[in-house]
Write a structure and sequence with these properties.
This protein is of the alpha/beta class. It contains 13 helices and 23 strands. Strands 1, 2, 3, 4, 5, 20, 21, 22 and 23 form a nine-stranded mixed beta sheet that branches. Strands 6, 9, 10, 11, 12, 13, 14, 15 and 16 form a nine-stranded parallel beta sheet that branches.
């Protein structure tokens, strides 16, 4: 397929007149022109309204063209393809290079690069020296810096804390201009099992309480809640979250196999950082991990940093779950993206060379992983294809939180959240809502 040239829009005023008056022209010749035009537009998958706007009369539409790249939708791969973006949405994905497009404000030559949906991180506690739980007001600061790692959308994650912290987070969640978009909050706690608290402060852990949930602004800004399903009242709370459109995730749990299955039946469909902070998988008591791996309804998240999970554990999950049921997360803490190789962040000791963030007793306290590195790690650990791995950082996480109809794909009508990568999967450029917000490529690739 080839993009329409400027000549194909020369009859837009005639079409606009017909659309507005809801009438057909009297002249046979004019009618013939319209019929032929309709046919031509059908070949290009363009509607009358699209073509009328494309004549530039409104003067407001922004167009960006990415051309000659290896396009991952991510399931379909176009060896040499192009993506047209208009007003923040994907207008076309086609399998030929396009040297230009009439009225394009920016053209990116993606020859030799991979073009894929932007990354969605469902669990990030902070970064660049900021901690969301300690300072929810820092969410915009971190959001502004995430695009350099390919992240276009994320869930700021608040761990178990005083209840006032959750209210502050609800007030603080905003999207900075040019930064990754917070799609809602992930409350990892306070309804967790003290036996599997991990780095969470046990004094802030509570039993599931619908009254507390009711205080969370009727859940409008909450997108995910991680809780332990074996706690009293957990199943009722899972059902309440499901009815409110909030993803109920299971984690920090001592649940048995039977308790986990009951939670899935109640509406839980996601497991937070599989294997970590939960009952170990055992041949006589599979626990939450075994129940999640067996159930085709359930998606799981993995921290693929080589520390939280042994590569063999990642490979086991990969062999049991398809990409559409696996979401990579960073679980990143304040040291992620920061410069010093080692240092202390409160009680947490960070060793960047070892890739760890630990409490003084050795307990893991989040990670210093970035999403682009998680992507590369998954491919290295499992020998999966880039197409499969890209689903785990875009399509699947978007679907987990109900955004699968707008994000995670390169499809017409979807949000134009796009990442450009080298063949080695290093981030070259990041586009959010049709705006190029990060660029580390050669200047000559850009035409404005």
């Amino acid at each position: 397929m080839r993009p329409a040239s400027a000549s194909t829009v020369s009859i837009s005023s005639m079409l606009q007149s017909c659309v507005q008056s809801r009438s057909l022209p009297r002249s046979r010749s004019t009618m013939l022109i319209l019929v032929v035009s309709f046919y031509a537009m059908s070949l290009y998958n363009v509607t009358i309204e699209d073509r009328v706007v494309m004549d530039g009369r409104d003067g407001a539409m922004k167009r960006l063209l990415i051309t000659a790249g290896r396009v991952f939708t991510p399931i379909t791969v176009l060896r040499v393809g192009s993506v047209l973006v208009e007003d923040g949405r994907i207008e076309r994905v086609f399998d030929t290079p396009a040297a230009s497009w009439a009225g394009a404000d920016t053209i990116i030559n993606a020859e030799g690069l991979l073009v894929a949906p932007g990354f969605v991180d469902l669990q990030i506690n902070g970064g660049f020296g900021y901690d969301f739980t300690q300072a929810p007001e820092s969410i915009p600061e971190v959001a502004a810096r995430l695009p350099r790692f390919g992240v276009t959308a994320f869930l700021p994650t608040i761990i178990s804390a005083p209840l006032e912290t959750y209210k502050r987070a609800l007030d603080a969640i905003t999207a900075p201009a040019g930064g990754a978009r917070p799609l809602g909050l992930h409350f990892e706690g306070p309804f967790l099992n003290p036996e599997r608290a991990g780095a969470h402060d046990r004094q802030f852990l509570l039993l599931p309480d619908a009254r507390i949930v009711q205080q969370w602004a009727s859940l409008e800004r909450v997108r995910m809640v991680t809780l332990a399903p074996e706690l009293p009242g957990a199943l009722e709370l899972i059902e309440r979250l499901r009815r409110a459109g909030v993803t109920a995730a299971l984690g920090h749990s001592q649940a048995t196999y039977a308790e986990a299955k009951a939670a899935f039946d109640a509406g839980a469909r996601f497991v937070t950082h599989l294997f970590n902070a939960m009952r170990p998988l055992h041949h006589r008591e599979p626990g939450l991990a075994g129940a999640a791996l067996e159930d085709p309804r359930v998606r799981v998240s993995l921290i693929a940093d080589g520390v939280h999970l042994h590569p063999a554990a990642v490979r086991m999950v990969w062999n049991l779950k398809p990409p559409k049921l696996i979401a990579l997360v960073t679980d990143a803490m304040a040291a992620a993206g920061d410069a010093p190789s080692t240092g202390r962040y409160g009680e947490i000791v960070v060793d960047r060379e070892a890739g760890t963030a630990r409490l003084p007793d050795g307990t893991l306290a989040g990670s210093i992983l970035t999403m682009d590195q998680a992507l590369r790690n998954l491919i290295q650990m499992t020998e999966c294809s880039p197409s499969e791995a890209l689903q785990c950082v875009s399509t699947t996480p978007a679907a987990v939180i109900g955004w699968g109809g707008r994000k995670g794909w390169l499809r017409r009508g979807y949000d134009a959240d796009i990442v450009l990568l080298t063949p080695e999967l290093q981030v070259v450029g990041t586009i959010i809502a049709g705006e190029l917000v990060y660029w580390a490529g050669e200047p000559e690739r850009l035409r404005r």
